[in-house]
């Protein structure tokens, strides 16, 4: 009999999450007796912002992990193989194999499987689709990205450089700004210490921005929109500055700026292009192997520290992808 540890949301989040919102439970899992069933043991769990806004009280925390198959009646997933699964915050899971993504067969031995949760996984895909499918970023254009030192933002800036663009990024600490410069961002600044965000954006690109990859929303968005060039494009990927609000923020509203600058703004979920994932993951892996994409991970050790890692990410502790080594 396998025992699973599972993090449950005991009480719906109100404001910033706190320790008492989470409870660690132990479940006895049934043997995977039926054909097609298998048991997974998580090795690395992804810490992601959407877990703050897409949760129901009493449910296991939603989340993605890299897991090892430890028991199997499913020939597609032999014992010892690894998968990416949307199993939630769980150490062990019984699965029928649907919804599991095998690690690509050509995954190089010298590249950590944890990157299947980062640069060569969902965050990398989000960056790629935002740039190619939503923004249609063209060589020579200027792109702005916020939360730029995070999992998605750091890949956004690097892909934009691969495409021959000027990249401006903002992040919340000087260490993050130094990292963005290492990654080749043309301009990077600390949005918490610049004084005037408007002046910082104007100074970074006096001629304005063709494209804006939006991860933050709220005040940043209000200040950034008037800095767009006419016909600028905005990919709304996330809005992390409002996820912890108990009362929704109101105005100023962007409509007049959008009308007079004739802006195009589109929200998106990376899952829209699921049919392209295998090919896109190969491209991301190719850039990683060529050294065109650099990666960094913020690793917390121990499954018992999942809530602490989650709250740390929401307050900006991470450079690169926040993960938990189980
Ligand atoms: N649409 C999709 O399919 C999709 C998929 C994945 C992620 N997302 C979204 O993309 C964004 C980035 O996700 P990620 O996984 O890459 O996270 P991440 O950037 O690795 O981590 C979150 C970062 O957000 C910043 N942040 C937190 N609170 C903030 C605030 N109040 N104002 C400004 N910045 C704040 C912090 O960095 P600083 O120190 O720089 O503040 C923090 O490190 C999130 O909004 C997420 O919801 C969307």
TrEMBL record:
EC category: oxidoreductase
Residues that span the membrane, as ranges: none
Catalytic activity: 20-hydroxy-leukotriene B4 + NADP(+) = 12-oxo-20-hydroxy-leukotriene B4 + NADPH + H(+); pentan-2-one + NADP(+) = (E)-pent-3-en-2-one + NADPH + H(+); nonan-2-one + NADP(+) = (3E)-nonen-2-one + NADPH + H(+); 13,14-dihydro-15-oxo-prostaglandin F1alpha + NADP(+) = 15-oxoprostaglandin F1alpha + NADPH + H(+)
One Gene Ontology molecular-function label: 15-oxoprostaglandin 13-reductase [NAD(P)+] activity
Protein keywords: Acetylation, Cytoplasm, Fatty acid metabolism, Hydroxylation, Lipid metabolism, NADP, Oxidoreductase, Phosphoprotein, Prostaglandin metabolism
Keyword Acetylation included in the entry's annotation: yes
GO biological process: prostaglandin metabolic process
Any GO CC annotation of this UniProt entry: cytoplasm
Sections of the chain in a coiled coil: none
Subunit organization: Monomer or homodimer.
Protein name per its UniProtKB record: Prostaglandin reductase 1
Organism: Echeneis naucrates (Live sharksucker)
Gene coding for it: ptgr1
